């Protein structure tokens, strides 16, 4: 399985807060790739793992190594 | 109220990560200028520029900045000259000896990056180091073209490291009196490193947000950045 070593997720939200577009940039075997995907992705992590992304016409299996967390999750974890 | 333009520009640049955080609410309160910002809940930035930096200071309330980069560039035009700031019917009037600028303000509701409060996290007082040590690993990351930095403390030894897909790696090390912990942080850490200078305090935990504070007589700044988390295993 090929590995993406780093991935950055950018999201654009509609006015009602629903995510409709995901922008991906990451490195694969030392090269930087950027793709944009459209779709409903409440759980971005699962979306990325469950879908094979098309990098310049070549569909690759990949394993996500690092994802960006967010501060809200850590606050909620503390409150629990 | 009046202030040297370069002092205000430097502070706004630091707290907005040189405009990487696009909008801001400048809150001119009794104690000075307060700014609290967040971007995508990945980074939180808080700054206070105390009123001693101003002459004839007035708590003029909230000023909504719609484009931080443009605002920084506007202030930069005045160099180290003294400017007078006035809130004039939803426009910020910047007056100097050489001319004036009218900057149209935006409503509070339009400031997407304003944060009401600091994140409630378990962060201790941390350890101190000079920002140049952080800058050294940022520059190493630029050489290797990587945006993720690993910060680890093991047996009182701080190791800052960057490594790329082809196996190249660079580390910076120093002794610190701090607990064992490790975290990876993305490009907002690099932007924060660019913003801070001199002696800073750093606190973090295992795969936990990192806090970097720069406290000076004239201002104080606090940054909190969420970590990159591994999805392996």
Outline the structure in words:
The complex is a heterodimer of chains A (80) and B (233). By secondary structure, chain A is of the alpha+beta class. Chain A has one domain (2-79). Chain A contains 2 helices and 7 strands. The longest helix of chain A is centred in the C-terminal third of the chain and has 9 residues, at 71-79. The radius of gyration of chain A is 14 Å and the shape is globular. Chain A starts with a strand and ends with a helix. Residues 1-9, 17-22, 26-45 and 52-64 of chain A have low confidence and may be disordered. Chain B is of the alpha+beta class and 233 residues long. Chain B has 2 domains: 2-110, DNA Polymerase III, subunit A, domain 2 (DNA Polymerase III, Chain A, domain 2), CATH 3.10.150.10; 127-225, DNA Polymerase III, subunit A, domain 2 (DNA Polymerase III, Chain A, domain 2, Roll), CATH 3.10.150.10. Chain B contains 4 helices and 17 strands. Chain B has helices spanning 5-15, 68-76, 131-144, 187-195, and strands at residues 2-4, 24-29, 32-39, 43-50, 61-65, 82-88, 91-96, 99-104, 127-130, 149-154, 157-163, 169-175, 181-185, 199-203, 210-215, 219-225, 228-230. In chain B, the strands form 3 sheets. Chain B has an 8-stranded antiparallel sheet with strand order 5-2-3-4-16-15-14-9. In chain B, strands 1-6-7-8 form a 4-stranded antiparallel sheet. Chain B has a 4-stranded antiparallel sheet with strand order 12-11-10-13. In chain B, strand 2 and strand 3 form a beta hairpin. The longest helix of chain B has 14 residues, at 131-144. The N and C termini of chain B lie far apart (57 Å). The mean pLDDT of chain B is 94. Classes of the chains: A alpha+beta (80), B alpha+beta (233). The interface between A and B is medium-sized, with 26 and 30 residues.
- Counting structural domains of chain A, the number is 1
- Most extensive chain contact? A-B, 26 and 30 residues
Largest sheet of chain A: 4 strands, mixed
CATH superfamily of the largest domain in chain B: DNA Polymerase III, subunit A, domain 2
Give start-end ranges of low-pLDDT stretches of chain B.
none
What amount of the residues of chain B lies in strands?
35-45%
Determine the number of helices of chain A (DSSP H or I, runs of at least 4 residues). 2
Rg from alpha-carbon coordinates of chain B: 19 Å
Residue runs with pLDDT of under 50 for 5 or more positions of chain A = 1-9, 17-22, 26-45, 52-64
Beginning-to-end CA distance, first to last residue of chain B: 57 Å
CATH class of the largest domain in chain B: Alpha Beta
Q: Give the strand tally of chain B.
A: 17
The secondary-structure class of chain B comes to alpha+beta
Mean pLDDT of chain B: 94
Number of structural units classed as domains of chain B: 2
- Secondary structure class of chain A reads alpha+beta
Reported by name, the CATH topology of the largest domain in chain B is: DNA Polymerase III, Chain A, domain 2
Summarize the main sheet of chain B: 8 strands, antiparallel
The string of secondary-structure elements of chain A, in order, is EEEHEEEEH
């Amino acid at each position: 399985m090929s590995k993406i070593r780093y991935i950055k997720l950018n999201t654009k939200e509609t006015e009602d807060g629903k995510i409709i577009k995901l922008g991906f940039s990451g490195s694969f075997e030392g090269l930087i790739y950027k793709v944009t995907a459209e779709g409903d992705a409440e759980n971005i992590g699962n979306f990325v793992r469950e879908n094979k992304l098309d990098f310049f016409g070549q569909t690759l299996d990949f394993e996500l190594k690092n994802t960006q967390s967010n501060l809200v999750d850590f606050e909620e974890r503390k409150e629990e | 109220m009046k202030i040297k333009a370069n002092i205000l520009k430097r502070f706004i640049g630091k707290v907005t990560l040189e405009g990487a955080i696009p909008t801001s609410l400048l809150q001119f309160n009794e104690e000075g200028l307060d700014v609290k910002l967040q971007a995508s809940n990945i980074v939180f930035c808080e700054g206070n520029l105390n009123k001693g930096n101003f002459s004839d200071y007035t708590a003029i309330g909230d000023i909504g900045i719609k484009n931080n980069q443009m605002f920084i560039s506007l202030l930069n035009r005045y160099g180290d000259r003294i400017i007078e700031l006035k809130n004039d019917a939803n426009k910020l009037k910047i007056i100097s000896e050489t001319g004036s600028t009218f900057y149209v303000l935006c409503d509070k509701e339009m400031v997407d990056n304003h944060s009401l409060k600091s994140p409630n996290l378990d962060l201790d007082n941390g350890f101190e180091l000079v920002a140049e040590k952080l800058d050294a690993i940022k520059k190493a990351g630029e050489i290797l073209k990587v945006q993720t930095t690993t910060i680890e403390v093991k047996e009182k030894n701080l190791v800052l490291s960057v490594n790329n897909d082809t196996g190249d790696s660079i580390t910076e090390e120093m002794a610190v009196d701090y607990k064992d912990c490790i975290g990876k942080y993305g490009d907002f850490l690099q932007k924060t490193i660019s913003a801070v200078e001199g002696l800073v305090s750093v606190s973090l935990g295992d795969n936990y947000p990192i806090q970097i504070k720069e406290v000076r007589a004239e201002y104080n700044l606090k940054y909190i950045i969420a970590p990159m988390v591994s999805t392996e295993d």
